[in-house]
Design brief:
With 195 residues, this protein is of the alpha/beta class. The chain has nine helices and nine strands. It folds into two domains: 88 residues, Rhodanese-like domain (Oxidized Rhodanese, domain 1, 3-Layer(aba) Sandwich), CATH 3.40.250; 88 residues, 3-Layer(aba) Sandwich (Oxidized Rhodanese, domain 1). A five-stranded parallel beta sheet has the order 5-9-8-6-7. Helix 8 links the parallel strand 8 and strand 9.
Length: 195
């Protein structure tokens, strides 16, 4: 599949297409195309895309060069047929702006406890979570974004779903942050939090 040119991307976005950026969460947080959704290919990629987009939408996939074909194929197996790709480096080299997502380190999560929201699946949350933290699974958040408020600090098992949730909220003008490494990092770097 040939990658879209910049003018084709801009036209597709004006026509209502959606951007899914499946690069690693650190790369996405540092710099991404405004309005794109993070769904790291290193996490529950298909699940995150399915939570946010129905398979009849035109999805433009942004991936690292060596994972572009895999990213497209994995969505095709989920029933997505209206897919294109775009090279993020083309955007970066243009005059177009990029966006960032604020992140918090797990060692500082104690300071954010009152604003933390766990966006893990309910099943995962039942097994292990930070005590006295609200659970709003990604799938529920998409249908009820008002459950997340400005300044909330999101986390999940490893930080993939929380970055997807943070990018979803950013599109709605609600600025939240996520915890780098999620609960896995909290368990190591913030042992004072009750689990």
């Amino acid at each position: 599949m040939r990658s879209l040119a910049l003018n084709q991307l801009e036209q597709a976005l004006r026509s209502g297409s959606f951007l899914v950026d499946c690069r690693p969460t650190n790369d996405f947080a540092d710099s991404h195309i405004p309005g794109s959704i993070s769904a790291s290919i290193n996490g529950s990629y298909e699940y995150m895309v399915n939570c946010i987009f129905s398979n009849d939408k035109h999805i433009i996939v942004i991936a690292e060069d060596e994972r572009q074909s895999e990213a497209i194929l994995r969505l095709e197996t989920e029933g997505y047929s209206n897919l294109s790709s775009f090279d993020f480096e083309v955007w970066k080299s243009s005059e177009n702006e990029t966006s960032k997502i604020k992140r918090c380190f797990a060692k500082d999560s104690v300071k954010h406890h009152d604003n933390m929201v766990d966006v893990s699946n309910s099943e995962d949350w039942e097994v292990l979570h930070v005590k006295n933290v609200l659970n709003v699974p990604l799938a529920d958040l998409v249908n009820q974004p008002s459950k997340i408020k400005e300044g909330d600090v999101l986390y999940c098992g490893n930080g993939h779903k929380s970055m997807a949730a943070a990018s979803f909220m950013a599109i709605r003008g609600v600025n939240v942050s996520d915890i780098v490494g999620g609960l896995s990092a909290i368990l190591v770097d913030a042992p004072e939090l009750e689990i």
